[in-house]
């Protein structure tokens, strides 16, 4: 077959063979590229959106490791451990070494006027009589009574800081658990609203079918559409609320990747009486224990200032080496001295009295704060105990209400299909079902949060996930 072109005739078969060769080559290159991409994907798989799953215990670990507030409080605890070394240093020796190397000099007049004109001055600056000396000194406290209450005050300060760290970490872990249950509740709310939206869509489609069959009026369809759009809006709002809750949880545990949550074991309380819970709170509440150590610290500080007038005894020794070839004929002299020094303070102005009064006033303030904290803790335990009991019975009632609303909706839907009920009845039953679902989920979340808060009050919310041995010095 021949085709006509401007420059003459060209073979159609030749053009076809060239196009087939180009097509085969491009196909081979494309297959090789796809195979290379597949191998690369297998070697470095990419996780899809929201693939990672975080349990509640893993969220605790992330918060303990990455939360900035806990890390900051940990550094404050480390700073408090340095106070005991301040007290220990009051009994440690002071050792020093002083070395001195000096030269004496004199100004002598010049010998000739030519030297004056050449040097530009009338005197010659010269060094002579080299002298050196060194002193090795030791001061060892033998009796320093204020070091004892200072050390005890530092120990109580460390215990108070440790309890503060426990308190801060416990609060942050409680917030982690609370936010975790918020995410879980919002995820269940999204599922419930999606189910409500699907039920509203099913009713709208049924109303349209009945309208086509002449068994319904246009008002029924419009009402069904309105209910569907309202359910869809609630579903979108629930999804946005879930994203906000996930952002709050990500912020407190210190991660930035997307994740999913799983349902943990629901928190429960032991079958103890209210009196037993109050005793547990007095014994194990971290905030109350921190105030107890703070009161002891201020009391030991009072003892520290009261012992400032007790005499101090130090042992002092020095070893001296002096070399002076000009003033000492022998050229060198080495000697040592030793002495016991007694220091008895007689009057220190108003410093000691003011310090003692300030320490006593702080001790009284800590005592008043401890007494008031006990009263507040008792009131919180009583209120939390009865609140949990009420929530428990409210959840039981709301479960029955949700079950009744679901059965009522199914019954009204069947009656509407049979032509006995109206579309308004179906929409009303669906709205009651959606409200019952929301109320049950909100009450469950309040119940779990109340239990976690009650455990925090009684000191049973213990998560030993933070290592507290931060002291970087060893005896």
Word description of this protein:
The strands form three sheets. Strands 4-5-7-8 form a four-stranded antiparallel β-sheet, with no helix packed on it. Strands 1-2 form a two-stranded antiparallel ribbon. By secondary structure, it is an alpha+beta fold. The longest helix has 68 residues, at 351-418. The protein has ten helices and eight strands. The chain has two domains: 2-43; 53-93 and 141-458, Outer membrane efflux proteins (OEP) (Up-down Bundle). The chain has helices at 12-43, 56-66, 68-88, 113-119, 147-212, 218-253, 274-284, 286-306, 351-418, 423-458, and strands at 2-5, 8-11, 53-54, 94-109, 123-143, 260-261, 312-324, 332-343. The chain is elongated, with a radius of gyration of 43 Å. The relative contact order is 0.12. The model is unreliable at 1-13, 43-50, 113-121 and 464-475 (pLDDT under 50).
Please specify the SSE layout and strand pairing:
Blueprint: E1 2-5, E2 8-11, H1 12-43, E3 53-54, H2 56-66, H3 68-88, E4 94-109, H4 113-119, E5 123-143, H5 147-212, H6 218-253, E6 260-261, H7 274-284, H8 286-306, E7 312-324, E8 332-343, H9 351-418, H10 423-458
Parallel strand pairs: 3-6
Antiparallel strand pairs: 1-2, 4-5, 5-7, 7-8
How many whole angstroms does the radius of gyration measure?
43 Å
Low-confidence blocks of residues: 1-13, 43-50, 113-121, 464-475
User: What would the principal axes of the Cα set say about the shape?
Assistant: elongated
CATH superfamily of the largest domain: Outer membrane efflux proteins (OEP)
The number of distinct structural domains comes to: 2
Mean pLDDT: 80
What oligomeric arrangement do these chains adopt? single chain
Order of helices and strands: EEHEHHEHEHHEHHEEHH
CATH class of the largest domain: Mainly Alpha
CATH architecture group name of the largest domain:
Up-down Bundle
């Amino acid at each position: 077959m021949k085709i006509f072109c401007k420059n003459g005739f060209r073979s159609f078969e030749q053009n076809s063979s060239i196009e087939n060769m180009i097509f085969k080559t491009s196909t081979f290159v494309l297959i090789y590229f796809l195979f290379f991409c597949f191998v690369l994907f297998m070697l470095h798989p990419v996780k899809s959106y929201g693939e990672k799953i975080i349990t509640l215990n893993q969220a605790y670990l992330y918060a303990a490791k990455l939360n900035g507030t806990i890390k900051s409080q940990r550094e404050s605890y480390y700073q408090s451990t340095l106070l005991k070394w301040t007290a220990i240093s009051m009994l440690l020796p002071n050792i020093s070494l002083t070395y001195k190397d000096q030269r004496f000099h004199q100004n002598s007049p010049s010998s000739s006027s030519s030297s004056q004109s050449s040097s530009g001055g009338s005197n010659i600056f010269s060094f002579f009589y080299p002298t050196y000396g060194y002193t090795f000194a030791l001061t060892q406290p033998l009796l320093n009574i204020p070091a004892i209450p200072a050390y005890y005050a530092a120990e109580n300060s460390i215990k108070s800081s440790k309890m503060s760290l426990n308190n801060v970490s416990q609060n942050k872990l409680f917030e982690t658990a609370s936010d975790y249950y918020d995410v879980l509740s919002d995820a269940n709310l999204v599922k419930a609203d999606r189910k409500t939206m699907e039920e509203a869509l099913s009713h709208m489609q049924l109303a349209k079918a009945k309208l086509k069959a002449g068994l319904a009026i246009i008002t029924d369809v419009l009402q069904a559409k309105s209910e569907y759009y309202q359910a869809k809006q609630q579903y979108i709002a629930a999804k946005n609320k879930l994203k906000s809750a996930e952002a709050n949880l990500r912020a407190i545990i210190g991660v930035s990747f997307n994740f999913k949550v799983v349902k943990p074991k629901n928190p429960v309380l032991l079958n103890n009486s209210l009196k037993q819970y109050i005793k547990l709170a007095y014994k194990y509440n971290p905030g109350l224990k921190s105030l107890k150590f703070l009161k002891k610290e201020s009391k030991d500080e009072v003892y520290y200032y009261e012992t400032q007038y007790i005499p101090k005894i130090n042992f002092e020794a020095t070893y001296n080496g002096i070399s002076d070839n000009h003033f000492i004929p022998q050229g060198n002299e080495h000697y040592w001295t030793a002495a016991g020094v007694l220091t008895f303070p007689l009057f220190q102005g108003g410093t000691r009295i003011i310090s003692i009064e300030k320490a006593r006033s702080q001790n009284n303030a800590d005592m008043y704060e401890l007494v008031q904290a006990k009263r507040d803790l008792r009131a919180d335990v009583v209120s939390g105990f009865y609140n949990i009991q009420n929530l428990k019975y409210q959840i039981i009632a709301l479960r029955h209400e949700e079950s009744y609303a679901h059965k009522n909706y199914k019954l009204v839907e069947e009656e509407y299909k049979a032509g006995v009920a109206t579309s308004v009845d179906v929409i009303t039953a669906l709205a009651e079902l959606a409200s019952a679902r929301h109320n049950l989920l909100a009450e469950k979340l309040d119940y779990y949060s109340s239990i976690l808060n009650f455990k925090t009050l009684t000191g049973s919310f213990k998560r030993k996930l933070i290592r507290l041995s931060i002291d970087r010095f060893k005896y």
